[in-house]
Amino acid sequence: MPNNSDESKKNPSTKASKPITPIRQRLIVTWLVWLSFRLLALPILISVFNPSRPDIVGGIAWQALWLVPAFVLTPSILRGRSPYALLIDSMFTLVYLGASGVVLFTRAYGSSWAEIAVYSLDFVLLFAINVWLFILLKRLPSMNNVVKQPRS
Prior knowledge:
- With about 150 residues, the protein is mostly helical.
- Helix content is about 75%, strand content about 0%.
């Protein structure tokens, strides 16, 4: 009599699926923390730590403009069920991650350690969002296993 592990190797449809809910919750929390950090905390902290004291209101306005695509993606991130929407969300967050990495890299050559820490936190939050998105996409049902009914 074969055990369950042998049976799951032969038939992949009987493979136990991993839970989606904990990853969705981590993604939602990380996403909301990143949005609030990027919109409010980053301009305030940069204004505090930068010797030229940039305007806080202008920084918040600039971040709000920069975050328009993220605000558009927020409903699909919060739902977290559609692989298609999450794939597009992942592409946009990878662009945000790349931009954040470039800003971190350019600030590393003339900014204080406190500013570098602020930009590093932004990068780490975006990296975590991308990790949760990739894990969630891996655990959601496949987009390629659609069974079409034959026409009569």
